[in-house]
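hey so i finaly got around to running the thing on Cellulase family glycosylhydrolase from Dyella jejuensis. pasting the sequence first so u can double check i didnt mess up the copy paste, my clipboard has been acting weird all day
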Amino acid sequence: MRAIMLSTWLTLFAPALLAADLMAFWDTPRHGGNSFNRLPPDEAYFRALKKYGASWVRVSYDKWRPTQRDFLLGNADRYQGLVASDLATLQKVLDNAQAAGLKVVVVPLSLPGMRWSQNNRGKFDDRLWRDKRYQQEAAQFWRDLASALKDHPAVAAYDLINEPAPEKHGDLYEHASAAAMQAWYRKARGTARDLPAFYTMLAKAIREIDATTPIMVESGWYGAADDFAYWPAPLDDAHVLYSFHMYEPYAFTSAPNLRRAVPYTYPGRVPFAGRLENWNRERIDAYLRQPLQWARARHIPMNRIVMGEFGCVRRVSGCVAYLDDVLSVADRAGIHWAFYSFREDSWDAMDYELGDAKVPWSYWKAIDEGRPDPLERHAMPAFEPIRRRLPDH
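ok and heres what it spat out for the 3d tokens, dont ask me to read them lol
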């Protein structure tokens, strides 16, 4: 009788308890980094991040060498199931993170009908946001991936897609006013460009397989902090984290700024949303206040909000001050964050352990030859705003 009662109890209540346990990881502010490397990271890589005090890492696999056209997907033009050899590579990376004591958020850069532009000859792939057939394939992909990963102890969340942009070719300009976004959404609602509806469908597909793992969803227009403005409500799932990225003003933080005859500096006047603005601590605070106000108005606690990426090109003047001001806002709010990026082996621009110097030719030669880059990393001043805040308290 006791065995029967225990079995019944486990059937009824264990899934909910497991879900609560996984969400409990996110109950206090968590600090980490992004891993968007071209080579699958080994245990030493994760241990180096853990040594700084990080508790989690956001891992994307789309730069890894695929068995077929697209890593894990096989072919983003027509999804037919996970590629077993690619999945084994991903699981090995998760094992490496687990051995180092880091939790992982798994995030694809591509889905069926939405191949990441850098794997698509630089072209933005809008098919997912025009044709719901691809969205059904994306739901099947996430069923398959959740089935494969749901029991892995390193996995702390599924980030459904990196930097979605259904608005890009949908007649909504970037950084539009909240009123303009809401008017646009009234027309887009129910179409393939309805991002909250798309997420709802993916979440439902995952919950058919996995009732416990938290789901992370990003705002539109490449994860812009102001782009939750048109979302009328949170998703109908108690285990969801809401994520945005912070690279504004992009004219300052991005690589093209280095190529300007006179680069923009921070603090300073920088173009944003079609006009020249003065960007300083107060302007960053005002900009980042938008997703926080959206969440509070919908009774979403701050421990369910994530700044999933942020950064600036390490060699531009004012990058250190910029990082410090962005993190000051995030930490005052008590939200989670992950800096971009940790020891990236294909793009040095936001690898803050390299300081503000150019990388030597050996870095690029290693990329050409498919080898690990040979550079040593240190806690340089450019990394200091992040380093001193990484340990979770």
